[in-house]
């Protein structure tokens, strides 16, 4: 039997990332983080595993890495809490699961998967989602688990800048690294099935209760075997308004655009609305696209020779 092509793309967030501003050591850490996620997903795909398993595993790896804004490394809301969103979608069945505003879940992406597979719903939030987790034997963690000094300092810096009315003041340099980030994975498996998974801590200093595009099916996450799988990162509000991830699929389905053309068109649409960000996508033939309108996006994919490619800058 002819084996279908497999493919995997991951991202660790888009934003202003200037070459030369990051220490070589820090850059190595980020690249290692991206590679770890690729390895986790690729091993599954290579052994004939599903794209759902592969994207979940890749995203879990990012969630456990404090460098990325998801799971352990989640940013803080204005109230000093960590409030996480995640979603996963199966391109074969169009089944999807998502969680929003969860605060005690070590790996929100796995809870999203549980919502997809074990509940009659697509999107669950807050306490109800956490009760559902408990009922299914998911271990809850204290909010302390999500504390990282760097994210906490970023919140204090933003609050200080706000208080001083110092938006744009050089004294308060607030990098995109301080502000947001997200992680995601899209994959094609041996059976020709596509899947997308995305997880985030949202934006630093967001109002408590704010939900971004990540858990919005069609906003920050979408997969359809007929077209592609997409995971986005950037100004979530704009991704929701643009129904970004679904728009990529729609452009492919109805306008016969390639995955590259469709993702670029949607990133342009977001830019026109005033938003910044990027996305990763893979189509049913394994073609990948990784466009962004920021100066960088942590990203990686497996090339046709099975080599792991990691990139940060434009
Ligand atoms: N899209 C995420 C959100 O708005 C943040 C990001 O990707 O930087 O929650």
In short:
The chain is α+β, with helices and mostly antiparallel strands and 314 residues long.
Describe what this molecule looks like in 3D.
With about 325 residues, the protein is α+β, with helices and mostly antiparallel strands. It has one domain (about 5-314): (Glycosyl)asparaginase (Glutamine Phosphoribosylpyrophosphate, subunit 1, domain 1). The protein has nine helices and twelve strands. The strands form two sheets. An eight-stranded mixed β-sheet has the order 4-3-2-6-5-1-11-12. A four-stranded antiparallel β-sheet has the order 7-8-9-10. The chain is globular and about 55 Å long. Aspartic acid (ASP) binds near residues 13, 181, 203 and 213.
CATH superfamily grouping = (Glycosyl)asparaginase
Q: What would you call the structural class?
A: alpha+beta
Please outline the major beta sheet: 8 strands, mixed
Tell me the number of structural domains.
1
Q: Note the gap between the termini.
A: 40 Å
Low-confidence stretches: none
CATH architecture: 4-Layer Sandwich
Q: What's the CATH first level?
A: Alpha Beta
How many helical elements? 9
Q: Estimate the mean pLDDT confidence.
A: 94
List SSEs in N-to-C order. EHHEEHEHHHEEEEHHHEEEE
Taken as a percent bin, the fraction of beta residues is 15-25%
Annotated CATH topology: Glutamine Phosphoribosylpyrophosphate, subunit 1, domain 1
């Amino acid at each position: 039997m002819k084996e279908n092509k497999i493919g995997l793309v991951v991202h660790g967030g888009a934003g202003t990332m200037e070459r030369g501003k990051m220490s070589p050591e820090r850059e190595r850490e980020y690249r290692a983080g991206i590679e770890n996620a690729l390895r986790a997903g690729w091993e599954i795909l290579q052994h004939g595993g599903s794209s759902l398993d592969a994207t979940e595993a890749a995203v879990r790896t990012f969630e456990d890495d404090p460098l990325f804004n998801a799971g352990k490394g989640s940013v803080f809301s204005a109230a000093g809490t960590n409030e996480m969103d995640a979603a996963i979608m199966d391109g074969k069945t169009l089944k999807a699961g998502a969680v929003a505003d969860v605060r005690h879940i070590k790996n929100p992406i796995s809870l999203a998967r549980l919502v997809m597979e074990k509940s009659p719903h697509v999107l669950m939030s807050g306490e109800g989602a956490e009760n559902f987790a408990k009922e299914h034997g998911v271990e809850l963690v204290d909010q302390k688990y999500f504390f990282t000094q760097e994210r906490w300092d970023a919140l204090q810096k933003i609050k200080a800048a706000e208080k001083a009315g110092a938006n744009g003041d050089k004294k308060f340099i607030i990098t995109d690294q301080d502000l947001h980030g997200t992680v995601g994975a899209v994959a094609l498996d041996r059976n020709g099935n596509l899947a997308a998974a995305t997880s985030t801590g949202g934006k630093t200093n967001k109002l408590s209760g704010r939900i971004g595009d990540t858990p919005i099916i069609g906003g920050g996450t979408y997969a359809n075997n007929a077209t592609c799988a997409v995971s986005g990162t950037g100004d979530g509000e704009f991704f929701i308004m643009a129904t970004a991830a679904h728009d990529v699929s729609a452009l492919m389905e109805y306008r016969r655009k390639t995955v590259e053309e469709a993702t670029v068109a949607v990133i342009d649409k977001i830019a026109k609305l005033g938003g910044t960000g990027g996305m990763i996508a893979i189509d049913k033939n394994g073609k990948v696209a990784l466009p962004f309108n920021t100066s960088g996006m942590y990203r990686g994919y497996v090339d046709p020779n099975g080599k792991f490619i990691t990139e940060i800058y434009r």
